[in-house]
Every structure is written in C-alpha cells, then in structure tokens.
Amino acid sequence: MRTRECSVIQTKFLGRRLRILQKRMQYLDVYGLSKALLACYTGYFAQQHPKILSSCVTPGFIDTQMTAGYGASKSPEQGTLAITHCLFDELSGNGWNYGSDGVRSPYHFMRNPGEMAYDGNAPF
Predict the structure, then answer these.
(1) Could you tell me which residue, 12 or 93, shows the higher pLDDT?
(2) pLDDT, tens digit (0-9, with 9 covering 90-100), for 56-105
(3) How do strand 104-105 and strand 56-57 relate by DSSP bridges?
(4) Per-residue confidence at 31, pLDDT binned at 50, 70, 90?
(5) Deepest of 16, 31, 62, 68, by most Cβ within 10 A of its Cβ?
(6) 94, 46 Cβ separation under 8 angstroms
C-alpha cells in the first residue's frame, strides 16, 4: 500500500509541475521545439530511406498575417528562396537543413545568410 501512495503523490507532483511548465512556455518555445524535431526527423528519415531525397527548410521570419506585429523582416517572396532551391536545384546531400539563403545550415546553432555553408562537423 505504501508504494501505491508514493506513486500517487509523485504523479500529482509531476502533474502540477508540468502544468506550471506549460503555462510558462510561450508559443515560440513550442514552435522552435517543433522545428528542431522536424529537422532531426528529416535527417533520420534520410538515413532510413536513402533513395528518397528529403530536406528541411528554414526560410526565415516571414512577414505574413500570422507574424504581423512581431518584427518579421522578410517578404513572402524572400521566403521562397530556400524552398525553390530545394525543389529545383541539384542538392549535394540528403537529409540536410537549408537556411533562408538556400545554403546548408546546421540544426544546432545559428548560421546567418551570407555565412559559409555548414560542412557537417560540429564546431565544438
């Protein structure tokens, strides 16, 4: 009986902590997490299915109705550069992430447009 009581107490405590965490998480935190997971899944999918070309695109902060008032700086036309690159240009790899300038970018740190392409090696 004691084990069951401890489990119930732990579950209530964890449930309360999760609710507090959920309240603190902002929309962009969840959005960023979903983007990171999708980028990781793209790499995994490419490993599991090497004959299917898959890429992940991060087109940048695009000025749309959804982002109005949040400081988005790219026009929708500028946001299509990386997508167009992945759809119509010859890609050098599979499962890669492409930044807003259509150049290979890392998943785990920021690469700004105009900087050198990510070479696949962790910098640390």
Answers:
(1) 93
(2) 998 888 898 888 888 888 999 998 999 999 999 999 899 999 999 999 99
(3) unpaired
(4) confident
(5) 62
(6) yes
Query: Please, what sign has the CA dihedral across residues 88, 92, 96, 102?
Result: negative
Residues 107, 124: Cα–Cα separation, whole Å: 14
Strand-by-strand arrangement of the 56-57 sheet: 56-57, 97-98, 104-105
How many Cβ atoms are within 10 Å of 26's Cβ, its own excluded?
8
Question: pLDDT at position 68, please?
Answer: 85
Tell me the residue type at 7. S
Give, as one character, the DSSP assignment of residue 62. B
CB 97 within 8 A of CB 56: yes
- Output b/e per residue, 59-68; b: 16+ Cβ within 10 A: bbebbeeeee
Whether the CB-CB separation of 57 and 21 falls below 8 Å is answered with: no
Q: Count CB neighbours of 48 within 10 A.
A: 10
Amino acid 67 reads T
Rounded to whole angstroms, the maximal C-alpha distance in the chain is 65
